[in-house]
Amino acid sequence: ALHLIGFHDVDGLIELMEGRKGFVQMLDSVFVVPPIYDDSYYGVLIHEITGMQVANMGNYAHGNQPAQHMIDLYDYARKPEKAQWWARGVMDRLYSATHRYCGDEDNGQTSAWYVFSALGFYPVCPASDEYTVGSPLFRKAMIHLENGKDIVIEAPENGPEKRYIGKMTLNGKVLQRPFLEYTEIKEGAEILFDQPLLFFISPRVG
Prior knowledge:
Elements: E1 4-5, E2 8-9, H1 10-16, H2 20-32, H3 47-55, H4 73-76, H5 80-94, H6 109-119, E3 121-122, E4 130-133, E5 140-144, E6 150-154, E7 167-170, E8 173-174, E9 179-181, H7 182-185, E10 189-194
Parallel strand pairs: 6-10
Antiparallel strand pairs: 1-2, 3-4, 4-9, 5-6, 7-8, 7-10
């Protein structure tokens, strides 16, 4: 399957980085390297850099919107468990009641990331029909669509220690990929997440 996200060909990028293993290693490194920065372009320490340092997630700067989708790229590399780990980690650490707001709002993007991610999926590229699956925050949520239909999202075993999806069903059928398509949910849908402590969800094939 070919994934085109905005100006990014994710599959092509993965290939350029010597395959999924190399791509995942590079993504992993973003979250663990020291928060080294170069402010010579600005001449001062800008707030996106300060936010990155405060977040203590390596070089991942969630407060700078162009970086927010990086977590979801794990899904394209067939490592959705890492997307689930980091999505929940960001929600828990950077959107808590005790943490200051984690960056620019910029037309609602930072809040939109949280709302979508808390529901369990995210539109990495709004121009595509694909949503990546992350880690739902609530045991039950409902979206009322303009056409009068509802999307019901349930994760009855959800909890602070249960970030990982063991099985996901869409309208009663097991979904064998960490993606949802717009056509699958636009007329309403029932999405069920089974979340054990240990992780496994069948990766996208192809």
